[in-house]
Amino acid sequence: MAPSDAARAQRDELFPGRVSTLAFTDPELVEHFEDLAFDEVLRDSRLAPRTRLMVQLAALVACQGAAEYRAMLGAALAVGVTPVEVKEIVYQCVPYVGMAKVLDALHVTNEVLVEHGVELPLPGQSTTTPHDRATKGLAVQREIVGADVVESLYTNAPADQVHVQRLLSANCFGDHYTRTGLDLPTRELLTFAMLVALGGCDPQVRGHVAANGNVGNGREVLVDVVTQLVPYIGYPRALNGLRAVDDVAPAG
């Protein structure tokens, strides 16, 4: 069967004039996928198109889906995600996904931005120095995660692992969360999306469900995000993400 009218309309809006070669080689698979990705998961979604594309980009980086990331990056730029926001999405992935998995996406990002006439490098977004990154990072970590939680992480860390907590505060939070270009609620939503997409991060996903709540992203938003990731990350990881949401922010 052909994709629904709604799926075709959404696909054509995001990818005007583009015809996937898979439509000729694997038409049945493409029809099912497009109905799911461009119709079914969108029916009850309240996410703005920009937000939807941003969390999907973060998840695709985590999945190392370079080809799909390239296609979705073009769609994200078309709906108004700015070059600075795109770069910040990729940078936000580094402390959680690791540079080894992010590097290909970074190169794709640069190629696509240049194709769109964007001059690189973009204006810097860092707000810290080598002297204050640890202090500022710890402050924003306490704001997002909660002061009691951060204190517990430091107190309960074995003596030979306290340095990792210091790295987390200075690097993950100090070098990344303090950057301009994206606000804290958006950064937390991206972090949640990429951790769900990675799989095997259940404790961290639960921690960032709580952190999202601290910055205003409640259960409804997180369920919506996971729903938008289903076509790209599959059901096992999506269901694990929903279980983390249920554990930390159960339905009322």
UniProtKB/TrEMBL annotation:
<dbReference type="InterPro" id="IPR029032">
    <property type="entry name" value="AhpD-like"/>
</dbReference>
<dbReference type="InterPro" id="IPR052512">
    <property type="entry name" value="4CMD/NDH-1_regulator"/>
</dbReference>
<feature type="domain" description="Carboxymuconolactone decarboxylase-like">
    <location>
        <begin position="27"/>
        <end position="111"/>
    </location>
</feature>
<dbReference type="InterPro" id="IPR003779">
    <property type="entry name" value="CMD-like"/>
</dbReference>
<dbReference type="Pfam" id="PF02627">
    <property type="entry name" value="CMD"/>
</dbReference>
<feature type="domain" description="Carboxymuconolactone decarboxylase-like">
    <location>
        <begin position="164"/>
        <end position="246"/>
    </location>
</feature>
<protein>
    <submittedName>
        <fullName>Carboxymuconolactone decarboxylase family protein</fullName>
    </submittedName>
</protein>
